[in-house]
């Protein structure tokens, strides 16, 4: 039976929500699926997974440093397995060619820095989690939201993720997982690569 790992980092909760949604969709097909947020510091043998999905949100035009370090450290194994990446970003809501180009460049920059080239990747809109922001971040996000014509009532949170897009991402991953041969076998050695986050 195939086994899938989902690794993510979430600061305000929307990336976590998307990762858990993806995990549940894959589990519902009968595939064993583990999910790990990198602050948990668990050690898991990465090579035993047939597929890996990694997700992170964009902050200040980049991804969390821990997530980038993890992907760089495991790039060789990730490149030998069925893998996918999802980015969570509010900027994708700005429906202009310039904004879309910038979002793509941020993701491609992540791949360049880590040396990992997943078979597929997607950008999802995130949310405005005003209830989780401190005073400073809340005011910055409100100002940005106002400039973009988005929601500015800080008394509530807003979610913009298109779950149909997430479903399509999962379906594409499952097709790739089913059709791709497994290239990376678990070494019969004590130093099996570990998922040290």
Give a brief outline of the structure:
This protein is of the alpha/beta class and 197 residues long. The protein has helices spanning 14-27, 65-73, 75-78, 97-114, 135-147, 163-179; strands at residues 3-9, 32-37, 51-57, 82-88, 120-124, 127-128, 158-159.
Layout of secondary structure:
Layout: E1 3-9, H1 14-27, E2 32-37, E3 51-57, H2 65-73, H3 75-78, E4 82-88, H4 97-114, E5 120-124, E6 127-128, H5 135-147, E7 158-159, H6 163-179
Parallel strand pairs: 1-2, 1-3, 3-4, 4-5
Antiparallel strand pairs: 6-7
Please tell me about this protein's structure.
With 197 residues, the protein is an alpha/beta fold. It folds into two domains: 3-126 and 161-179, Rossmann fold (3-Layer(aba) Sandwich); 128-158, no CATH class. Helix content is 38%, strand content 18%. The protein is built from six helices and seven strands; from the N terminus they run E-H-E-E-H-H-E-H-E-E-H-E-H. The protein has helices at 14-27, 65-73, 75-78, 97-114, 135-147, 163-179; strands spanning 3-9, 32-37, 51-57, 82-88, 120-124, 127-128, 158-159. The strands form two sheets. A five-stranded parallel sheet has the order 2-1-3-4-5, with helices on both faces. Helix 1 (14-27) links the parallel strand 1 (3-9) and strand 2. Helix 1 crosses helix 6. The longest helix has 18 residues, at 97-114. The chain is globular. The protein starts with a strand and ends in an 18-residue tail after the last helix. 31% of the residues are buried. The model is unreliable at 183-197 (pLDDT under 50).
